Amino acid sequence: MNTAAGRHTAEVNIFTEMSALAETHAAVNLGQGFPDSAGPVEIIEAAVAALRAGHNQYPPVPGIAPLREAVAHHQRHWYGIPVDPRSEVVITAGASEAIAAAVLAFVSPGDEVVVLEPFYDLYRACVSMAGGTLVPVRLHEPGFRFDQAALAAAVTDRTRMLLLNSPHNPTGLVLDEHEVRAVAGIAAEHDLLVVADEVYEHMVYDGRRHHPVAAVPGMWERTVSISSAGKSFSVTGWKVGWATGPADLLSRVQGVKQYLSFAAGTPLQHGVVRALACPDSYYEDLRTDYQRRRDLLADGLAELGFAVSRPAGTYFVTVDAGPLGATDGLRFCRELPRRCGVAAIPNSVFYTDPGAAGAQVRFTFCKPEAVLREGLRRLRRGLRGGW
């Protein structure tokens, strides 16, 4: 038995660790990104109706036809991207499965995958499982800005894929149209596949827009776009996601996906059909609500002395606890539930070199305003006098 491998697989995920600490200390959990709400009533009722109607067996591997049609309509309506629901949509067990299936489908041992750093920790795990090498391109402070020259320099003759996340977790960066076109140019020049993680596509603030790379002329043929219902409709536990792209790429994603979950969540897929039928006003209200919560949390954290990077998208705020006297974000987060009754996530888990994160910490604002205010109140009390 490979005991080293066994130890690795037994490691506790940072989100699990911080949520456990939050429970132990009865802390306000501003770490893990799940909304404290039940989701829109009409969406829940659609899933309940599907359960009662007997939609409780395996769906087709690529997903039920009405949901594939709804996803295709979503892409066409919001971004002008024509998608064939019969061959260019695959429904997955959350965006996580779509990402894993795409990486496992296209990355072979020795291949390199370029990613913006900091990055969602799932990316590193998936690339490692495929035998590939993750190549990080650092986003620069202040503001975690994108560096086109650095991205181009990271590409080698072993690069197979650009794994692009915008709106970006954990920093909240939203690539503008010029930046997305720069990514597209690099991918086209080097004949690279792009896997675009766009799960926060409807959480973009201050009048900005999400610009999908697949909408850039010439990029549809080399892009797998991924999103899900969890973030946009506050149903993260449903784990219903999707991938869209050209049929030749999607057939390979589906070929892997069928050996991961095979298929899942038949009644929940019916619920997401109803979700994607929401009017445009739903998404506008979502953005307005989250922007208000973002400002509440970001302003409150700044008043407490954190160096705050105000996000343009997602529902996370990255801060630097250094001005409070902290030097290690992981140590800070492990102490925070006991000392302040609040949980957060250290950004060190989003870097290949954990030390590069310093005292960066991620808080989420996908909680009711009362919960955010209570979290700030506890931080104010617990941090009195510095760290």
Fold and architecture overview:
The N and C termini lie far apart (44 Å). α3 (41-52) runs antiparallel to α11 (266-275). Helices cover 42% and strands 15% of the residues. It has two domains: 13-39 and 281-382, Aspartate Aminotransferase, domain 1 (Alpha-Beta Complex), CATH 3.90.1150; 41-275, Type I PLP-dependent aspartate aminotransferase-like (Major domain) (Aspartate Aminotransferase, domain 2). With 387 residues, it is of the alpha/beta class. The protein is built from 14 helices and 13 strands. It has helices at 3-10, 14-24, 41-52, 65-79, 94-106, 121-129, 148-154, 177-189, 229-232, 247-257, 266-275, 280-303, 329-340, 369-382, and strands spanning 28-29, 89-92, 112-117, 133-138, 159-165, 193-197, 223-228, 241-244, 307-309, 316-320, 342-343, 345-346, 360-364. The relative contact order is 0.17.
Number of helices: 14
Strand content: 5-15%
Spatial extent as radius of gyration: 20 Å
The structural class is alpha/beta
Strand order of the largest sheet: 2-8-7-6-5-3-4
Helix and strand sequence: HHEHHEHEHEHEHEEHEHHHEEHEEEH
Profile the largest sheet: 7 strands, mixed
Number of strands: 13
Query: How many angstroms does the end-to-end distance come to?
Result: 44 Å
